[in-house]
Design brief:
7 strands, two-stranded antiparallel ribbon, globular, disordered N terminus, single chain, alpha/beta
Length: 194
């Protein structure tokens, strides 16, 4: 396999099944990174973005902890606030991913909820795809409100934009068993992992 395409970005809209796919790749012995977990750690007390976020949005600080749900309600309803948060966190997240990728000795799959950041133009992109109605249903089953889900979806690329950016699409319209078969086929064909 070309060294150039050893690392992949795994992306897709909220509720598409990115996290499930990343976990499945892990079961096939592939290295993965969850960018959301890096982002969450930045917002923990003592995290690299904690002070700046708490200063910018003091109302989300509850008992010394940033309430990520309250922060999400603000930023996913305000493009300016979302841009401000991303400006504080994305460079830190991208820096950590880059550092881990440089230390990686094999293929790496990075789950990231945005489209092709320019700093990784040479990486290929896998997109997990599901119809918007399915994504909404999944999110509501996880306890999110339809209003919150629609706000997050509106802040993300459209389904067509995700698909246009993909070098490879993993369809996820239904049963988990079908998704497992798709991931197994990708793991075998791209990485020689069965």
């Amino acid at each position: 396999m070309s060294e150039r395409y050893q690392h992949w970005l795994l992306s897709g809209g909220i509720g598409s099944g990115k996290s499930a796919v990343r976990a499945m790749f892990e079961t096939h012995g592939l290295g993965t990174i969850d960018s959301d977990s890096i982002g969450h750690s930045l917002l923990e007390p003592g995290g690299a973005a904690f002070d700046r976020v708490a200063e910018e949005w003091p109302g989300v600080l509850i008992d010394g902890v940033i309430d990520r749900g309250a922060l999400a309600k603000i930023v996913f309803n305000s493009p300016d606030d979302l841009a401000a948060l991303e400006g504080m966190t994305h460079p830190l997240i991208f820096g950590e991913i880059t550092a881990r990728a440089q230390r990686s000795e094999g293929p790496l799959i990075v789950e990231i909820p945005i489209l092709r950041p320019t700093m990784w133009d040479e990486w290929q992109v896998m997109v997990v795809d599901a119809p918007d109605s399915v994504r909404l249903e999944r999110g509501m089953r996880r306890g999110q409100t339809e209003e919150d889900l629609r706000a997050r979806m509106a802040a993300q690329p459209t389904r067509g934009e995700w698909l246009a950016a993909a070098d490879l699409v993993i369809p996820n319209p239904g049963a988990i068993e079908e998704l497992e078969e798709s991931v197994e086929a990708v793991a075998a064909s791209l990485f020689g992992r069965g």
